[in-house]
Fold this protein.
Amino acid sequence: MKPTLLILAAGMGSRYGGLKQIDPVGPADEVILDYSVFDAKRAGFGKVVFVIRKDIEEAFREQVGGRFEDKIEVEYVFQELEDLPDGFSVPPERAKPWGTVHAMLAAREIIKEPFGVINADDFYGPSAFQILADSLNEKDPTSLELVLVGYPLKNTVSTNGTVSRGMCEVKDGQLVSVTECHEIRPVEEGIEVNREGTVQVVDGNQLVSMNTWGFTPALFEEAIQGFSSFLESNDDPAKGEYYIPTLVQEVMDAGKGSVEVLEANDSWLGVTYPEDKPMVQEGLKALADQGVYPNPLWTT
């Protein structure tokens, strides 16, 4: 059974200010999602599942999902505020969903095979998808042997402002922890990082998480339990969110599972700031010129 790719896209409408503002970035007006789906199909993924919101369903299917439905199997699931574990209800002050674990859980009824998880608005490069597919093809769906594809920090920064990244501590190829670091920017001596209030300069070779995960369906049960515990202890019912790195850390800390860390060979590309767009366009054109991608991307 081929692995599935789960794409977290529920925030697209709010982040971009409307789906119509998803800018073409490829040499033939491709959007970033075109490359993720193309790379996933080429690597051997058999299906793409989009996590979206009900209120953007029609626009998303027309403007985004419809681009791929004749190229790979596509399904849609919905991140809904009311989708909570038994015994929980939505607090009156709550208006937004509960974070990336909540988004992932929207697919728990339809994904029965090992699966990758990515953001909708990042370019990861072909090696990340091939690494994920090769690893997931070897996974026992009942195990909690998980995968993280990491990127060297220096390949993920912007010259137009600071970014936040999940800095990985790795030992013998296994993930020990992921620490969210902020105000990351290139400086003359290397990369400046604010790690939990302490500013330091690093060489940029440290691996970071860009939310490129490989999971088994066994993780869904852990996610339900972890989400329930989060809801019980959440001291910010209006805005608190439960994130995938937190869930993964809890699984590791409990001794239930492990996370193999594999390094992507490509540079991540993304538009954190409007000024980043020309760099993304140049990078994608260069990849097309090198023959990494056909131009136009979807030639058939």
Notes: The chain has one domain: 4-149+209-254+267-289.
